[in-house]
């Protein structure tokens, strides 16, 4: 995990990262949304932070007929439109002409069909030396593109490195993920493959390791003796937008759980690795998922809640229900919300439930990890007006505002003993000059310098699917019902019941 955050946080930073070695970034899916909204802005941010040097270039590959100039023009328009737009992932106040000019001059375009060997031959003639191939295309193209790259000799590391970045969704279930991993490993070396999960580009997610392992006070408490349970939430206000065709066969479980949510789970629950070496970290993360108690048909029925948003009000506006969205079936049973109760059945976590939930069109956009500590003994307070103690809660805020809050009890000033809740609050923005980052900067930089710590190894991916496969099977067999929740709410009532059964409650999402 390279420390580019210092370089990205401005000229006053003491430690700037070294520029990445010169290379060509080939983007398959050059005209797509990911390229426009996240990859090219990240390249621009990296240039501004002096993380890219001469010898760097981008070749965008797509079927749309156009030349370099037209490609440059389209991306320049997109970049200009982001400037000042506060809502997006990338919203610079103004576009720095020098930095964008530098990137712009290094953008090239290659017309080509992804299934056509000629595309790869043409590409091969254009590149030499180190190269990163970024698969910013639909999952159905992963196998064919990887095969053509390998068979066309483009993965041979003769005059420099050759690496591929594979986006999600990595498979549709356990069998397809295993098949894709097998295909990759038959065609290239594991060290050439970077399976990306953009949640790992988020600063607070990376900070989890620093928080846990660099602070002497937390690690001794980070286990079943002191922690009662953990809640992991990724609530979104967006609906399915224009992605109905993708989302219908996917659903919240596949879209968010084996990847993003399990990354948060693994970072929270993993054992300290022997070092920050990529394989040491990835081994510990795989072990956490391998320790999750397998679901059975019975526990799926008891411990999993699937929801789908119906019409409702959000931000003062009427919102349609999921079934009224474009490209969605009128009787769709795809879940847009899922909550799971998981047990990490190992020595550290035995008996500590991990409640995981994620959903679209919820009341607020918030991703957080909430660690509920066990309560102190009440005995001392029995002859006081304090009728109950409230346990300590640590909230690790992943987004939108990044930071950590520790809730503790304190005496309310006055002659009698009353307790009040107070918060010890750390906000990234108060301490560090946090720039407008997409989160992909760190990940792209890491690929270029060959640091795979923040990327998934084949066994990490397989372990995630292994956990959710029995849930997919139960859904397939029609054994789970999808519960409706109003757009703008905190999810279905059954998800509250999941915790209430254990005498617990979700931390309110509030607004
Ligand atoms: C993507 C999912 O991987 O992550 C989307 O496909 C989801 O459905 C998104 O909205 C959430 O990412 P972020 O960074 O906006 O929290």
What distinguishing features does this structure have?
single chain, 511 residues, alpha/beta, Rossmann fold, Dihydrodipicolinate Reductase, domain 2, nine-stranded mixed beta sheet, six-stranded parallel beta sheet, 16 helices, binds 6-O-phosphono-beta-D-glucopyranose
Structure description:
The protein is α/β, with parallel strands linked by helices and 511 residues long. The protein has 2 domains: 11-167, Rossmann fold, CATH 3.40.50; 200-375 and 456-500, 2-Layer Sandwich (Dihydrodipicolinate Reductase, domain 2), CATH 3.30.360. Helix content is 34%, strand content 20%. It has helices spanning 5-8, 33-48, 68-82, 97-104, 117-126, 142-151, 174-187, 203-214, 244-247, 251-269, 278-290, 297-303, 428-431, 440-449, 458-476, 493-500, and strands at 24-28, 57-62, 107-111, 131-135, 162-166, 193-195, 227-235, 304-310, 312-314, 317-319, 337-343, 353-359, 366-373, 393-399, 403-411, 419-427, 482-486. The protein has a 9-stranded mixed beta sheet with strand order 16-15-14-13-7-12-11-8-17, with helices on both faces. A 6-stranded parallel beta sheet has the order 3-2-1-4-5-6, with helices on both faces. A two-stranded antiparallel ribbon has the order 9-10. A hairpin with a 3-residue loop joins strand 14 and strand 15 (403-411). The two termini are 34 Å apart. Residues 10-15 have low confidence and may be disordered. The chain binds 6-O-phosphono-beta-D-glucopyranose. 6-O-phosphono-beta-D-glucopyranose (BG6) binds at residues 168, 198, 236, 255, 367.
CATH superfamily of the largest domain: Dihydrodipicolinate Reductase, domain 2
The fraction of residues in strands falls at 15-25%
Report the CATH topology name of the largest domain. Dihydrodipicolinate Reductase, domain 2
Strand count:
17
Query: Helix coverage percent of residues?
Result: 25-40%
| Poorly predicted sequence stretches spanning 5 or more consecutive residues | 10-15
- The structural domain count equals 2
SS class:
alpha/beta
The CATH class of the largest domain is identified as Alpha Beta
Outline, from the CA principal axes? globular
Name every ligand kind in the structure: 6-O-phosphono-beta-D-glucopyranose
In the CATH hierarchy, the architecture of the largest domain is 2-Layer Sandwich
As laid out across the biggest beta sheet, the strand order is 16-15-14-13-7-12-11-8-17
Compute the gyration radius: what is it?
24 Å
Note the main sheet. 9 strands, mixed
* Average residue pLDDT: 93
Number of helices: 16
| Cα separation of the termini | 34 Å
